Amino acid sequence: MKFKILIVLLVIIFFIIVIAINPLSNTKKNNSYLRTSGITEIKGLNPFNPSFNDVYSASIQRNIWEPLYKYSPDFSENHEIKNSPDKRIIPWIAKEMPIYNEVDNKHEVIVKIRQDVYWWDKKKLTADDVVFSGNLMLNFGIPVNDRSSWQIIEGKYYVDKIEKIDNFTIKYTLNELVPIFQIGPLMSMIFPKHQWKPIVDKSIKKFNEHEETDINKRNLIANEIWSVDVGKDLKLNEIIGSGPFKPVNWKQGEYMRMDSNHDYWAKGRIIKIYGKEYEIGPYIDGILRMVYKSSDTINLVMKNGDIDITSIQPSDISYFQKNNNMEIKTCTRNSLFFIGFNLRKKPMSYLCFRQSVSYLYNKELLNDRVFHGRLSPIYSVVPYVNEYWHNPNLQTYGKGMNTIERQYKAFNILKECGFDWKTEPRFEIENEKPIKLISKGIDIIMPDGNSCPELKIFGSPASEVPDSAQANIMLQEWMNDIGIPAKFIPIDFGTATDFIYPSDLSEPNFDINTVVGWSLGPDPMYLKDLWHSSHRPEMISGGLNAEGYINFEYDKLSEQSIREMDPKKRRKIVFKLQEIISKEIPIFPTTTVTNIQVYRKDRFEDWFSMPTYGIGGAENQYSYMILKPKQ
Amino acid sequence: MNALEINNLIMYYELFGGNKLMAINNISFSVEESKTTGIVGESGCGKSSIASTILKILPDNAKIINGNIYFKYGEIIKRSGKVDLLTLDKKTMQDIRWKGISMIFQGAMNVLNPVYRVGDQIIEIMRYKDNISKEEANEKLEDLCRIVNIDSSRMKDYPHQFSGGMKQKAIIAMALSTNPKLIIADEPTTALDLISQYNILEQIKKIQKKLNMSMIFISHNLFTVSNISDQVVVMYAGKIMESCEKKKLFENSLHPYSIALIKSCLSINDKKNKLYGIPGEPPNLVFPSSGCAFYPRCPYAKEICKKIEPEYKEIEKKHFVACWRYI
Amino acid sequence: MIHVGFTKYITRRILEGIISLFVVITIIFFLFRVMPGDPVSMILDPKMTPEMKEMIRNSYGLNEPIFVQYGIYLKNIITLNMGNSFHYSKPVFEIIMEKLPNTLLLFTSASILASVLGIFLGRIIAWKRNSNTEYILSVVGLFFYNMPLFWLGLILIYIFSFSLGLFPIGGMIDYQLWSFNPSIIEKILDILHHLFLPLITLTVSSFCGMMFLMRTSMVETLKEDYVIAAKARGLPDKVIRNKYAARNAELPVITALILGISGSIGGGVLTETVFSWPGIGYELFRSTMERDYPLAQGCFFMLSLITIVSVIVIDVVYSYLDPRISYD
Fold this sequence. Notes:
The complex is a heterotrimer of chains A (about 625), B (about 325) and C (about 325).
Chain A: H1 2-20, E1 33-38, H2 55-64, E2 69-71, H3 79-82, E3 89-91, E4 99-103, E5 106-112, H4 127-140, E6 151-153, E7 156-157, E8 159-166, E9 169-174, H5 180-183, H6 193-208, H7 214-226, E10 230-231, E11 234-235, E12 245-251, E13 255-260, E14 270-273, E15 276-279, E16 286-291, H8 295-304, E17 309-311, H9 317-321, E18 326-332, E19 335-341, H10 351-360, H11 363-369, E20 375-377, H12 403-416, E21 420-423, E22 426-430, E23 433-439, E24 442-445, E25 455-459, H13 466-481, E26 486-490, H14 493-500, E27 512-513, E28 517-519, H15 526-531, H16 552-561, H17 567-584, E29 587-600, E30 604-605, H18 621-626, E31 628-629
Parallel strand pairs in A: 1-16, 10-11, 25-26, 25-27
Antiparallel strand pairs in A: 2-3, 4-5, 5-9, 6-7, 8-9, 12-13, 13-16, 14-15, 17-29, 18-29, 19-27, 19-28, 19-29, 20-29, 21-24, 22-23, 30-31
Chain B: E1 2-14, E2 20-32, E3 36-40, H1 47-55, E4 62-71, E5 83-84, H2 90-96, E6 101-104, H3 118-130, H4 134-148, H5 164-176, E7 182-186, H6 194-211, E8 214-219, H7 222-228, E9 231-236, E10 239-245, H8 246-252, H9 256-269, H10 303-307, E11 313-316, E12 319-321
Parallel strand pairs in B: 3-8, 3-9, 6-7, 7-8
Antiparallel strand pairs in B: 1-2, 1-4, 4-5, 9-10, 10-12, 11-12
Helix pairs in contact in B: 3-4, 4-5
Chain C: H1 4-34, H2 50-60, H3 66-78, H4 92-127, H5 132-146, H6 149-163, H7 175-178, H8 184-222, H9 225-232, H10 237-267, H11 269-274, H12 280-289, H13 293-321
Helix pairs in contact in C: 1-13, 4-5, 4-8, 4-10, 4-13, 5-8, 6-8, 8-10, 9-10, 10-12, 10-13, 12-13
């Protein structure tokens, strides 16, 4: 009996202690750390590692190591500079815009850098660091994630060499001058030579005696460098960067704390955003990033006031609108969701079939009823947020039409190009307008006389992305209504990639794919990588043209598009490329993500939202630098 | 004077589907003080149910609907004279158990808790029942060991380390540990070889005499029963067929069932004779036929046996029988 | 009970364990290779050129013939190094050692709590069969048992953390507190503070299984001769219930408890997700979904190892709890 009483007592004491702990942590109230959160953790800080390709790792890395040039904070929204691609870029570590010269068929680019840029260990950032960082790419291909912007042809750098002219002047010699030079080499991160040179030298030494081909040796060395565990092998407090935030505390999968660099070299610099001038800080104490594993939890944490900024679901808008301390801002991301057709198979190979599916897919309705504004309709493979490159004059395939009208249209397109039915779908027509589907079509027959096989629509399972699964079910029904035998197959991402992007040079095996979505960079160079005929997975392992699109005009134009230096001419080509895709529909662009962000305006002021790349919205580097705590 | 007296006891088990298994069907018998009453019968005739009914350790589906069980020693529960066990509440019954009536279970059963030492289990019951100190209990345990003839050092062993005979001895020791007035021995020797059987029976007899206890001895073996008992009760199909003194049973048994039983026992012991069995099926207790329960197997069956159940009647002193032949 | 026979027995069990472990890891290895989804082609990014993918594939060691990969894998397992995770580019062993204790802390304490509660309540309802107590406890237990765990977790979070503000909403530590060098006591209290809700959720949702297991087991033991004999002896009910019936009925529950701990590691992903608990279950799930072979293999290896060790532990525990068992 005594024993039982003791247990009960212990339990009660445990309760009291546990509940009483809360006030113990009083440190947290008196600071102005920006508290953010995410579902996924930061994969890693080693900037050279190709696995750390998530936006969160990239964002942290870019707060540590900075580039020569940055995208202007307000490009594509500011009309003054919107039509001038040159002005989308502003010098950061560089002092001014680069100077281009042509000497003996080679191009020389002179970049002058600022003399007031300091590393965290108070050493000056000089041309040596820039040359060293550039040579890491030329010699070892690292950071791997930047590599594609240093190459036009696979495996060949268009940058020939990088030399130091004086302590603050660098000369790039190029075999060919291409537009992505500005956003590639000139936007690559600059690393402190005095920190990384010893690591590189050690790696070189380790593999120098190996009996290997040069290319293998290079890869091994690169592998060795990107395997350095930043945070352990290279301790957090030993990292030398030049950026505004220093990582000080990190528990992977749980939290990361970055403290502001109060001696930031750019402090006091003025930047102009939307016509308003801001002085660069940072003013906040730092950034704390916590991982919560479900969006429901993040939602509660935000409502509770434990974090300062997060993305929310459309259903939560009304709750946060009621709170005067919060501000909601939507920001459309530069991303691309689409319906991909496997052009190798019938009936996807018929253009009229793809057109009719495009008509059937009522994305306006879906955005309204299913996605609730989370996925905005797009009509081009360059989404409208990327205003300079976006071609606004494309076929919309039924914008403004209702579902019946779309079905009727799709039916007619199919009929005109030779499709037949055992039983045709019947529509009730009033004033030459279809108003009702009377009976479904049954057993569609393709123009070659064969009946149409059941088409599998690959999509994310409802357990992962419920609204996308619902959209796919609706597409399936719309197709079934006019007699196309389609079936939505929920499939997990890993399995889907095996079918859609096989890595063993076999032909992709799918009918219709909605699983994949692309997160796009601001430059439209991806138009070549995604639909150039040489990028079919059966031609090259890792190719992304899963649809198997072959159009030599498109190939030629897309090759031109990545070489054309005149922005206006380039723009014309990019417009043309979008037009071709829109007409031939290897993929049908459907939606882009609209991010609904909510942030605390009572704790911080001078938030600003930035679209198109990175995490996007108000969680961007400029915002961190100019954000001010409110007292 | 009777230590225990059972009158018109009826008990049945309720089966799935509402059928009733009449385990004890209107039974009356008594146990004289310091004497032994033996109950004999085929397996399933309800003899063990009598033991469970007396101690009230029946399963949930057992229902007692009629009868009295008078127990002489009311003083155990602070009452004077006879008490009817069936009217006692649970708590009082607890006190009767082992102080008034204890039981020797079959050694083949798992009577001992496998996870505690044998000695501890005997000490436990003594301490609960007699409120004695650990030391006293230990001393008494030594005595008991001597009585039942077990090496007292083995009391530190677990039950599974005991042989069948030792287990049986331990169970006997346990039954004796609290000096009960009445012991019910339910097939205490069945699981043992003949020599152990004999030894144990002798011991039980000795102890009974020494401690002046009354006993109900239950067995399917007529010889064992007759060896130890003063009065023998022959049961068949939940009913008593015949009850008489031990001597009379062999000299002058009246009921055809008793006669058949004796005959079959003799045939086993006498090698010259052929084995004798009682022809026919054991009785169905769920759907009993009308009339005498033994009628289908009875060589002397008459028309009336089939229709009307014979009365259980005392035809001479201490000799009861239920058979139409003697009415 | 420990003597030569026992040591010999345990040695044999350990050898058997090693063999089954080997079989399990071999099956795991080949299962992952057969499973659709290629770790490299899952990194989909228009910026990822085919050449880069090839380089990554090489660095993952995926271009080696499968039996060479298997050999490396076995060598790694033996040295407990288990290779580097594709996802984290970190040694698998390091990751497991970081996350496993968190999971064990949560699930072991929850399992023990649930078992204690289950044994306690199961014993009551087996004893008082067909009573109101049994009815109420069964309904309450089944209610929580059948409630989806994540839902129960969310409801508890909503009530206790969000509305009442008594507990943190998620995580194992207060990241603000921890990044500012707290004392050890503060750290322990903070972990307890965070542990509370997931612990309660797990306990509430799983005690019912233990309760019914205990009930069934005890109803069986109640029919045992020694329980009936104990009743016949007129021992007090509590003694019969606790020392005779429950003591023997506990044995299967303890097996379930120990096996349950190893089982919960693999199945803990839901709890870990709802409570943002940095545990191994989530890693197991994520690494399998992302085809992070080394980490997934490592997690499964650990899981098998723990299960096999659990079985041996059960044997040892049993020899203490049940004197009938000897290993001669």
